[in-house]
Every structure is written in C-alpha cells, then in structure tokens.
Design a protein that fits this description.
Length: 379
C-alpha cells in the first residue's frame, strides 16, 4: 500500500469541493468518462435481457459463449481479424480489470513491466500491487509519443515479463503507425515479453481515421493480446464490459487468475454488449462526430490563446503544452484557483507527462467553450 503513488487528483479534488461548497460553478475537463448516454437500442436489449431468468444465475467465467462469439464476429466485421471464440477471447469486467489481473498471471516479485512513460495508471499500479517494478518507456513529442521500448536497459529486459502500449493513446491522444506496431511485436518476440495493446479508443477516430487492431499484423498473436472495451466505443463506462483477445496461452492464464477471483459479468450486461457490437454501428460514427466537433472547438480556442497542442486523430482528449513558466501541477492549480476549471495535470499519468495538461472532450460544447474562455482570462 505504501508503495502506491499518491493520488495526484487528491489536492485538486479538495480544492474543488471547497469551491463547490461556496456555490462556485466549477467546470471539470478532468474526467475521461463520456457525457452522452448509452444508445437506446443497447438499453432496450438490456431491459429485455434482465427479464430472462437464465441471466439471473452465476455468469460463465470466461463469458457466455454467445458473448465470446459476438466478440469474435465484431473482430471480423471491424478489422477482418479471425479469432477463436473459445480459446482467443475472454470477457472482462471492463478492461481495467483485465489489466490489473494480468499482473498476478505474469509478474513475480521483482519482475519488470515496460509501461508507457505516461499512460493509464493501472499499468503501473497493477504491478506495484504484486511487488513488480515498472520501467517507464520515454514518450516525447519528437517520437510522436510512441513509447520508446528500444532504450530499455538490458538488465531490465532480463527481468521483464510484460509490455503495455495503447494507441490511440490516453493521455497524449497520439496514434501509432503500422511500423511502430511491427517493431513492438518484433521486440516482444526477441525479449520474450507478453505485449498488451490496450485499444480502449479503437472506435474514436477523427477525419476518417479508423484505428487498427494490432492483431491485423502478421505474428501479432504469437506474442500479443489486445483489450477492447464497450466503455468509450458505445458510451458504456458504467456497464463494465470488455474483452481480451489474441494469444491463447495468455488468454488462458488470465482466465485462470480471474476464475479464482471474480465470477464473471452479469449475463444480461453481456447480452446488451452483444447488441452494442452486432447491432447498428452508425452510433459509433455519431459518437466520434461529437468529439471531433469538440476537438476543433478546443484546438481553435487554445490556438487563439497561444497554448500549443497537436490536433488529435482520435480519443476523447486534447494534450496541451502548459504555458512558459509553469509545470503541469502548477498550471492545473492556477486554472482551478483562478478560472474554476479542472484540467488533468500531465504528470499524473507518468514522468513523460510533465509539461502538459490533458483536456477531456467528454464535456458539453458550451461548457468546453466557457472553460477555455475562462482559462484565457487568467493568462
Ligand atoms: C478508459 C480506459 C480504460 C478503461 O476501460 P474500462 O473498459 O472501462 O475498464 C482502459 N484503458 C484506457 C487507456 C482508458 O482510457
């Protein structure tokens, strides 16, 4: 417990609570949780599924066969990738759960995990909870925020078991090239690592960009698994439903850990997720359109006030440089104190995040516009 990093939002949360108690209108751009509701046809499928008494009993550990088959069908429809529903697909209670449970499967005390220099916190904290050690792979603007595994020292590699990557990326909103995925696969093969590609934003692409699956690449499933989630794709963060797919040995190991800890996902939720994945997919484009519009609004507004940010091709975040003279926490604190706006300090996601803030697009347009206007007035 003592080794877990302090919760970097704790200070911000405390200041926010104090302001809200005074009746101040605080706008939060800090949260990566879609503001839009789950599409109706998915909610309707749940309403029906909850009336099915067979769904009231314990769920299947690896996921209902019909759910795993739907995941496999979705992989085929979406990426043209063939996966075996019995051996290469595993239901997860959200991908966060899957990430955390990979550690007891693969990491012994003192083993290393290669973790993105800034990324989803569980890649790091999941290791701490089993006595593992994180090696943060540098991510810089010069290397397009592609985590640099090549620079990992030999002594670390000798005790490394897993490597996490995730593109489109939270928090930097960077996307990966095919070359990058190919070299990550080759690197994992060379150093006997399990490669985990967290594809949480596979459905959130802009300007016609559709993020790929790493499993489209030759040899990927020899070394890799990929995590997909209904959370961001279908506005279903509260439902807790996702899946892992790829290397059968890794899937089996993760399934073994899970069967000793949890008892699966409520089967009615799996039925709703089947509707999400195999029902009308036009909702996906509709969701991306909303974020793309907000991205444009934020990029234009930041540009107008002289804050630098790359225009993202995906995710629900804009990753912006803090102005001259600030660090991430200092700027986030200033913006909260003077503008009553919460932004996420980049260093909360790891060492490569210093010097940046993350702005979430999961905020209604008018609130986003007002938040940027307020930030402008403080500068
Ligand atoms: C949101 C997010 C997740 C969590 O997904 P769940 O399926 O809701 O657990 C995982 N990885 C990244 C990078 C995320 O941003």
């Amino acid at each position: 417990m003592a080794n877990l990093p302090p919760y970097l939002f704790a200070e911000i949360d405390r200041k926010k609570e104090a302001k809200v108690a005074q009746g101040i209108d605080v706008i939060s751009l800090g949260i990566g949780d879609p503001d839009q509701p789950t599409p109706d046809h998915i909610v309707d499928a749940m309403a029906k599924a909850i009336r099915n008494p067979a769904n009231h009993r314990y769920p299947s550990y690896p996921g209902a066969k019909r759910y795993r088959e739907a995941c496999a069908q979705w992989m085929q429809n979406r990426f043209g990738v063939d996966v075996d529903a019995d051996t290469e697909v595993l239901a997860l209670i959200g991908s966060k759960e899957g990430i955390a449970h990979l550690f007891p499967a693969f990491v012994d005390v003192g083993d290393y995990t290669l973790v993105p220099g800034c990324g989803y916190p569980v890649y790091h904290t999941g290791g701490i909870l089993v006595g593992g050690i994180s090696h943060f792979m540098p991510m810089t603007e010069q290397n397009d925020f592609l985590a640099d595994f090549e620079s990992t020292p030999e002594d670390v590699l000798a005790r490394a078991k897993m490597m996490f990557i995730s593109y489109p990326n939270n928090p930097t909103s960077a996307i990966a090239t095919t070359d990058y995925f190919e070299s990550a696969i080759a690197f994992a093969r060379e150093h006997d690592l399990l490669l985990i590609h967290d594809n949480a934003y596979s459905e959130i692409g802009f300007d016609g960009y559709r993020p790929p699956s790493i499993l489209e690449l030759p040899g990927a499933r020899d070394v890799a698994i990929e995590l997909f989630s209904c959370s961001k794709a279908y506005n279903m963060t509260g439902w807790r439903v996702a899946f892992a797919t790829g290397n059968a040995d890794a899937i089996k190991a993760l399934a073994t850990v899970k069967s000793n800890i949890d008892s699966g996902i409520f089967t009615a939720v799996q039925d709703a997720a089947i509707e999400a994945m195999l029902g009308p997919q036009d909702v996906v484009a509709g969701i991306s359109d909303i974020y793309q519009r907000r991205r444009d609004l934020v990029i234009d507004a930041l540009d107008a006030i002289g804050m630098k940010a790359r225009k993202p091709k995906g995710t629900i975040y804009v990753w912006a440089h803090v102005p001259e003279g600030y660090d991430s926490a200092g700027f986030a604190t200033k913006v909260l104190e003077e503008a009553n706006v919460i932004v996420a300090p980049g260093n909360a996601y790891g060492p490569s995040g210093e010097g940046y803030i993350r702005i979430s697009l999961a905020t209604p347009d008018d609130r986003l516009a007002e938040a940027i206007e307020r930030i402008k007035n403080t500068l």
